[in-house]
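User: Before I run my own analysis I want an independent prediction to cross-check against. Here's the chain; please return only the structure tokens and, at the end, one sentence I can use as a sanity check.
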Amino acid sequence: MPSGDAAGPLHLRVEGVSMSFPTRRVLTDVSLVVPSGGRACLIGENGSGKSTLLRIVAGLTRPDTGRVQAPGTVGLHHQEVPFSPALTVAEVLEDATVAVRELAARVERAGEALGRAEPGAEVALDAALEDARRHGAWDVEHRADQVVDGLGLASLPRGRRAGELSGGQLSRLSLAWTLLRSPDTLLLDEPTNHLDDAGTALLTDLLRSWSGPVLLASHDRAFLDEVATTVLDLDPTPVPHARVAADEDSPGSGYGLTRYTGSYTAYLQQRREDRRRWVRRYRDEQAELTRLRRKVADDHTVGHADRGPRTEARASAKFYADRNARVVARRVNDARAALEQLERDQVRRPPDRLRLRGLGSPEGAAGGPAGGGPVLRATDVGLRRRLAPLSLVVPAHGRLLVTGANGSGKSTLLALLAGTLLPTSGRVMRAPGLRVGLLSQEPMPHPTRDTARAEYARRVGHERAARQPLAGFGLLADRDLDRPVAELSVGQRRRLDLAVVLADPPDLLLLDEPTNHLSLLLVSELELALPAYPGAVVVASHDRWLREDWSGERLHLPEPVRVRPTTAEERLGT
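Assistant: Structure tokens:
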């Protein structure tokens, strides 16, 4: 459990933490230190235990072994909303700042006690002043305005209940609640998933000046480059085979973690080098094991076993027989000892990287309906209060990137193009027979207890699942195919959704924030595969790396007109 107070440990310490679930092991002997002012970023494949480790540090999950020490109060922003959905936006913001406001009131009370010359009042005042300074108690209203505005929450009606907000709005409100509480130890799980450029810039500035330790998990490469002081990789490392062989194919079977100093870009270069060395070492060790096993078998005899000594004398025969036995024993023992040592120390086989397949040239490759014209044309299409009217044309092999601030209507536009929403103005014309596939921002909200393989077959049809099995996409490790969907990580569930979309390759592929929740390596593979997709592709994304490398057409949606409350009291809900 997290422990410590303002006067306690200055660093976040995780010592020997291991965690297993009934069907898999996710963390083994994980230790790390994050100093105050440090920003450590957890990375790793989906299912490698990033969210689990954050929950352990926050005290929400008890590990099998190990301990955690954290300075002062601990705050976690994660998938679960930390407040009641019945609360209004105003009540959530008020609740977020009440503890910090109390620190200022505590200073006043300590000052009054000092004026009355109460014993210990001077020490109490010094402590109260330090706590208020560290948490920004005298700056709380300005910081609240800054956070609410920067996270795109300023226009939300303060009387609206949290349960009535969209998923993105609720996630940003949850992040605001965590930041405004000003915990000493800050834990963040994918904090940029629903942030536009302004929101990410605000979060970056706040983290750079955070006085306590920060531990976060993120897929956002540009954000990691700007924020990380340390990168902590939870993916498997080349430890001895005997220690982890039972879970060799699991993305969550890493032993400990690997620490890289510097930015994400520096990590990528070092990670590639480490992987090459691991593959080379494993290959060389396996070749040596083969040689030693053959040597142990061959060295049971030396020379020509069926050939007698040159002299016929019995004494000479016994001499040569004894010498031969000693030489054989020595050689066999030496080879066996070397073999046993290497078998103990050999590194585990490097796990096969999950490589995205089926996107570049899928079965029944999409290409658009016959005719050669545009596959889709939208004319003055809009949705009241969600998307201002616009027009666009998507060619048969077009590539379109949709960008814009939160609330500008990117997800709404993709839903209108997919036909899952109907416009209130304009029209969308699709080519006859056009097959459209949409990957939504978030995986299914209520995951089933069916296995991933069974859920995939249910959603795409058993006949298609037999022709294009889930395993063929390389999106889930073999051992995860038959795990209940409810036990998969959010990222693994999103991989399942992607496989469902690609099972019947659409003529028009619509991807809404495709980098959300996916591992960094898979995101890179997805980006590399998109240009080769045989159909048309429309992507809506905040991801700056994806946007910088985009070579197709672009559509930037204008920022919506925001109606802001007129007073600070209304903004804070007081």
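Sanity check: The first helix runs from residue 50 to 58.
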